[in-house]
Design goal:
Elements (H helix, E strand, L loop, with lengths): L1 E6 L6 H6 L7 E4 H7 L3 E5 L4 E4 L1 H7 L7 E5 L10 E6 L2 H10 L4 H12 L2 H8 L6 E5 L5 H13 L17
Parallel strand pairs: 1-5, 1-6, 2-5, 6-7
Antiparallel strand pairs: 3-4
Helix pairs in contact: 4-5
The structure holds adenosine-5'-diphosphate and magnesium ion.
Length: 173
């Protein structure tokens, strides 16, 4: 059984990579779908133009034993009971371009670019003392197919934590 969260700032490529699992044994799920399924959606948030999700309630209710092999796409997926976590990263200036193409408001672009700049998802994972194996991949200049291959290799090697490079720090570059 392996359930893998694919997390990271909006725009890093989670859904793009997740969709590549469609030909594999992994079921593709999203935090949004699960929130709907478990009745953990809140109100529509005008500021972010999306449904609020009660991620902590979802984390309590989510029954991972019901699943065999699955990947869970979402920027909050690392809060769920998963076996391993893939965190995707993207250079902030490229992220800005991707989010602008998506038609996000200036405010929403800025908030997300800053979140990526300060490695916000890492802060959450560290704060929650997550103990699962973590694979961090930079999507800035890599083909989705290459990234998919790297994830598959990591899974097949039993989530090897050997030779994992230092965390990406955009502020240090
Ligand atoms: P997320 O699900 O993390 O919000 P998406 O998968 O929707 O991100 O990707 C955001 C945008 O970036 C899309 O326009 C997508 O085509 C593009 N994109 C995603 N991954 C890559 C990549 N590896 N290289 C170039 N562009 C990418
Ligand atoms: Mg997405």
């Amino acid at each position: 059984m392996s359930i893998i969260a694919i997390t990271g700032t909006p725009g890093v490529g989670k859904t793009t990579i997740g969709e590549l699992f469609s030909g594999s044994d992994f079921t593709i799920l999203s935090v949004k779908d699960l929130a709907k399924q478990y009745g953990c959606e809140g109100d529509f948030d005008e500021a972010t133009q999306s449904m609020d999700i009660d991620i902590h309630r979802l984390a309590e209710q989510f029954e991972s034993d019901l699943l065999d092999e699955a990947i869970i796409d979402g920027h909050l997926s690392h809060f769920l009971e998963v076996d391993a976590i893939v965190i995707l990263r993207c250079n902030p200036s490229m992220l800005q371009e991707r989010l602008a193409k998506r038609g996000y408001s200036e405010q929403k672009i800025k908030a997300n670019v800053e979140w990526e700049m300060i490695s916000g998802t890492w802060s959450e994972m560290i704060e929650f003392e997550l103990e699962q194996p973590i694979l961090e991949l930079d999507t800035t200049n890599f083909d989705p197919a290459d990234i998919y291959e790297q994830i598959i290799k990591w899974v097949n090697e039993g989530y090897s934590q050997d030779s994992i490079p230092a965390k990406i720090d955009w502020l240090a570059k």
